[in-house]
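Progress note, project year one: complex with flavin-adenine dinucleotide.
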Amino acid sequence: MNKSSRTFILGHRYHVVIVGANFAGLKAASALSSEDFRVTVIDTHPYFEFLPNIHELISGIKKPANLRLPRKSLIEGFGHTFIRDFVTKVDGEKKRIDTATGQKFDYDFCIVAVGGVNNTFGVEGADQYAMPFKSVENCYLIGQKLAHLVKSGDRTNIVIVGGNLEGIEALGEILRKYRKLAEVNIAVIEKSPRLLPGTIASVDSEIRGLCQPFNVSFHTGVGVEKVEEKTIYLSSEEILPSDITIWTGGSCAPKIIDESGLNNAPGQWAAVNHCLQSQKYNNIFIAGDAAELPNPISKQAYYAMDMGILAAENLQHMANGNSFANANLPARPSIVTFGDLSTFLVTDKFAFSGQSLAAIKESIFQLNMVRMDNPIRLGGIFDTAFRINSAATGFVLPSLTSFSALKRLGKLKLLN
Ligand SMILES: Cc1cc2nc3c(=O)[nH]c(=O)nc-3n(C[C@H](O)[C@H](O)[C@H](O)COP(=O)(O)OP(=O)(O)OC[C@H]3O[C@@H](n4cnc5c(N)ncnc54)[C@H](O)[C@@H]3O)c2cc1C
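Model obtained:
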């Protein structure tokens, strides 16, 4: 616990601006009372998007509307104001937000929750020819283009760049829909020596085994040197044909972090202390993927939500002259779906596979969507869902790190 510096007037209704309203920003908005604070929330896009399930748009088992909630009504439901605009700068010296349309917002406190942007690592042609995998629109367009290519009846060469969580989930959805078609070829490229590099090696073998009957080739331990419209050049000097290149290569800090001087060096994420307070300006808090804690954590939606709430709580502590709380973000397993072929629960130490895990991932999605939705619109359903969701995400998922809890799920295969 850190003591906040007391320079604020008790009882004053301060203006808080939240930049970015997805997992972290929306949670922060929900945790601030409109009686205590005047809150303005700014985001470029009109919808909250549940990104962990966007791969399902590729096969069409989810539609864009399943994964989106309207931001304006959610935020107005909390008693706050929603502004749809792109923030170009958070000016920590002037305590002012500048937007692309020329609007300016003075603030007393700011929460920056801008997430990350697609990272093509400067690979020539990647920005121009590869399709990003970072939003509902991105994945919907990938699904549409794939359907169009396959419908032509010609050979379709699909290249997925990245064999981590996003790339594997994309592969699973493509196999779900197209694996029976002999004219569909899929190549997966991963720079690390194995797929899903953050977990144990046997997950890699399991995925390769499941793909054996289909036209899938894996190129691990190699990087992409250049992307052209119909050709991919690898560091191994292999050249792959590609009718559609899906880029799941990672994310990097958005330009606004640089423009606002919130990082320690250009291109880095926004530096925060253990309480999510900016290391540059003490009335700015950073939450979610955009924040770089002293001990960096993986960029995950469940951390972003916890960080959004903590940023709002510490902001309130600061306004009241109370002590800050430190971020407590224990490691949790990830559930990686592989189309209808399998689902994996992975940690850095062990992994399981089994279809029952798919139901857990779907429950987490459904319950989080209800939990994110406006309590006024949903009335009593919200309370019930909140309780169930607390059980699902707050209890079930962390408890799945224990072998005994996993055994109780039944029909799971331990990958070792
Ligand atoms: C394909 C994919 C699969 C994933 N799977 C999982 C998973 O299985 N489990 C998991 O826990 N996590 C998963 N993640 C990660 C998870 O989605 C992120 O950790 C989470 O979205 C981070 O939340 P955030 O609120 O920090 O940022 P984001 O969700 O990225 O939201 C940032 C918001 O800020 C807005 N914004 C950005 N810049 C500006 C600006 N200048 N002005 C105004 N608004 C701005 C954006 O429009 C956006 O709404 C996945 C991510 C992807 C892309």
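Residues 19-25, 42-45, 51-52, 54-55, 86-87, 113-115, 133-134, 165-166, 254, 256, 288-290, 299-302, 304, 334 surround flavin-adenine dinucleotide (CB under 6 Å).
The first strand starts at residue 2 and ends at 3.
No further modelling is planned for this target in the current period.
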